[in-house]
Amino acid sequence: MFEAILFDFDGTLVDFVDADLRSLRWLHAHSGAPVSCEAFLETAVDAIMAFHQLVEAQAIDPLLMHSWRLQHTFAHYGLPWDDSYTELYRAQLIEVCIPFAGVEPMLAQVRRKAKTGLISNAYDAQEQRARIAHAGLVSYFDSIVIACEVGSYKPEPDIFWHALAQLGVAPGDALYIGDSVTHDIAGAKAAGMQAALLSRTPRPAPLADYSVASIAELHQLLTQVLA
Residues with Cβ < 8 Å from 44, sequence gap 6 or more? Predict the structure, then answer.
């Protein structure tokens, strides 16, 4: 039986992609941009991928993510930019952050059996903590670690060790759950933990100790390993 269960946030407990697209659609409508919403969304998605590459190359301040991405999207279409758009998008991103169905009863059950932790790779701690709070999940965790606050990002093992130290649990006594093979599974295994991949589309996961396709399957798995 595990002493601690730790989770990824975006993509695992909440749907960041859906929240992002909903927030972008709202901003597109609010700004009155004379381009199709579909084209606007496609450009914004391309821009965020380019931004992440710049961050990985240490070529840009991660906290510029929203403003850089949105300014590039508006500039792509020659649209007028308003500095208020960044905060309007950010407010929407927090407002639409809700957990996947079944997450709260699952976490409530896990917390009765083991210590719980959350590890997020977010660049902006204030925003991410606001999103976690709006999702109503803060009370389910004994430890919440945001990468930018500790200066270590998944898959670096240091961020996992930091969370485990807060919980007072050895790596071999903990299970980590995430939706990214590269960041979550590889990182947790490098830190000496067992790992479970939550993948809603079938894909190989040779590093994972467990693999599930839904919150319902994850709940069932956790019931078994904590029995």
Answer: 24, 69, 70, 73
The pTM score is 0.94
The DSSP letter of residue 143 is E
103: enclosing H helix or E strand? helix 103-113
d(CA 153, CA 148): 7
Enclosing domain of residue 36: 16-95
SS3 202: coil
Q: Which of 77, 95, 113 is the last residue of a domain?
A: 95
Please tell me the total count of domains within the chain: 2
For residues 29 and 89, membership in a common domain is answered with yes
Rounded distance between C-alpha atoms, residue 51 and residue 64, angstroms: 9
DSSP class of residue 156 equals S
83 Cβ contact partners less than 8 Å away, ≥ 6 residues apart = 67
Task: In whole angstroms, give the CA distance from residue 191 to residue 87.
Answer: 36
Say how many C-beta atoms besides its own lie within 10 A of residue 30's C-beta. 14
Asked if the peptide bond before residue 206 counts as cis, ω within 30 degrees of 0, the response is no
Q: Cβ of 42: how many Cβ atoms within 10 Å?
A: 12
Tell me the average confidence (pLDDT) per consecutive run of 10 residues in the chain, 227 residues long: 96 97 97 96 97 93 96 97 97 97 98 97 96 98 97 96 98 97 97 97 87 97 96
End position of a domain, from candidates 35, 64, 95: 95
Say yes or no: 78 and 132 in one domain: no
